[in-house]
Amino acid sequence: MMTTASVAAEDLSARQGPFRRLSGFLHRHTKTRLVALLSAPLLWLVVIYLASLALLFVAAFWQQDSFTSQLVREFTTDNVKEAFTNPAYRTVGLRTLTIATTVTVMCLILALPVAFYAAKVAKPRGRRMLIVAFLVPLWASYLVKAYAWRGILGENGALDWALKPLGISGPGFGQIAVIITLTYLWLPYMILPIYASLDRLPNSLLEASGDLGGKSWRTFRSVVFPIILPGIAAGSIFTFSLSLGDYIAVRLVAPTLTVTGSQIYNNIAGGGNTPLGAALALISVLTITIYMLLVSRTGALKEL
């Protein structure tokens, strides 16, 4: 026999609209709710991003008719061999790798003391202001920041004006200008993960190291560094990959400098050899993948 409460519950369920019933169903089935939440971004990732990336990689093994510039969908490895064996592409690839590595190291050198001061030295109000200062550059337009550095580093620019009383001049447009600009652009991506790691570091560990006679360097090496290593790994992946693929800032502050991103753009979007550009893009992705595998072997990514 049905009780009064069960009858009331069934009557209430019958009066509920479809959206209310769907909400109740998702509330009871957490896995279904998770799938529903992730379906849209996963669909975008798989269909739009990964599918287009796969098509680009497939194009690396096609040919391009030298007379009509039309794609010939016949399998060949000539483009990949050309990208690996041509001295010009190897030179540009090594230059790009050097720039990306240098930018990553510079960002790390600058981020460590700034993040440590913000997390462990600054007062709460100053810490909040520093965090805002870290985030504000991310809200500004990429092109605005790159053009600003073009004006600073260019001939008779702000840096030349500041250094002129000392009898020296700025670096001008070139590889040094690219490193300076990219370091500024990607520095927040290194500071924020390291700051988050340091913020989780208990002050008691630093005090215990000091009580046990640990000097500053020993404390950093044995206590601080193992804890912030995941943050360094995450920041380095951002700075390295973004620097490796950038070509817009390079064109603004070093118009005559050629990097791998410029070669990919010229071949794919600039009317060049599309399969060759796809082969160069494939090498760039493989380089980033190898870098991530090397980072993962340190065990740093397991803590993210």
Compute the CA-based radius of gyration. 27 Å
- What is the overall number of helices? 14
Largest sheet: 2 strands, antiparallel
CATH architecture of the largest domain: Orthogonal Bundle
Name of the CATH class of the largest domain:
Mainly Alpha
Share of β-strand residues: under 5%
Number of individual domains: 2
Topology pattern, helix = H, strand = E: HHHEEHHHHHHHHHHH
CATH topology of the largest domain: MetI-like fold
- The overall pLDDT average reads 80
Shape designation: globular
Helix content class: over 70%
| Superfamily (CATH H level) name of the largest domain | MetI-like
Strand order of the largest sheet: 1-2
Judged by helices, strands and strand pairing, the structural class is mainly alpha
**Amino- and carboxy-terminal Cα gap:** 55 Å
Low-confidence stretches: none
Number of strands: 2
